[in-house]
Amino acid sequence: MLADWYSLSHIVHGLLFYAALWLVARRWPVEWRFLAALLVETSWEVIENTPVVIDRYRATTAALGYTGDSVVNSLSDILMMSLGFLAARKLPVRWAIILLLALEIIPLFTIRDNLTLNVWALISPNKALQAWQAGS
Fold first, then answer.
1. In terms of Cα–Cα distance, which of 10, 1, 6 is closest to 79?
2. Whole-number pLDDT of residue 55
3. Which of 6, 59, 109, 116 has its CA 20 to 30 A from that of 128?
4. What is the model's pLDDT at position 64?
5. CB 122 within 8 A of CB 56
6. Whole-angstrom distance, CA of residue 103 vs CA of residue 124
7. In the prediction, which pLDDT does 22 show?
8. pLDDT recorded at residue 62
9. pLDDT (0 to 100) of residue 130
10. Cα(75)–Cα(81) distance, integer angstroms
């Protein structure tokens, strides 16, 4: 797929990468910070599609039948991160935060998943969270 609900989490990646790189590397030109974010996101797309991570997703997250991303979906995810990064650069901080919150809250209630829950489930699986996400 070109885009799916998880595309929103990649926009959040871009917002967060912009903020993090502004905090730790604000003297770098924005183009370098963008390239750093692009490198991190692209690396994640490669790592995310390894058997180890795919198996971890299946075992601990709401993505029970996850088989990895297609090349098209991975490229779309990188584009979505780029859009998030560029939005963070252009938006006032308040609006970037509101956008980030909306992109986390809408999928939370629509598909019972978002970036926060995905990271939580990957790092520290929780049976109650898995049951809630499954609708049990």
1. 10
2. 86
3. 6
4. 67
5. yes
6. 22
7. 98
8. 67
9. 85
10. 10
Q: Which residues of the chain have pLDDT under 50?
A: none
Q: Which two tokens stand for residue 15?
A: 């917002």
Question: Quick check: 117 and 132 in contact, CB under 8 A?
Answer: no
What are the pLDDT digits (tens) for 20-57?
999 999 999 999 999 999 999 999 999 999 999 888 88
Tokens of 69: 């991303």
pLDDT at 42: 98
Q: What's CA 15's distance to the chain center, in Å?
A: 10
- Taking phi over 0 as left and psi of -120 to 50 as alpha, with beta for the rest, 112 belongs to left
Location of structure tokens 């019972």: 112
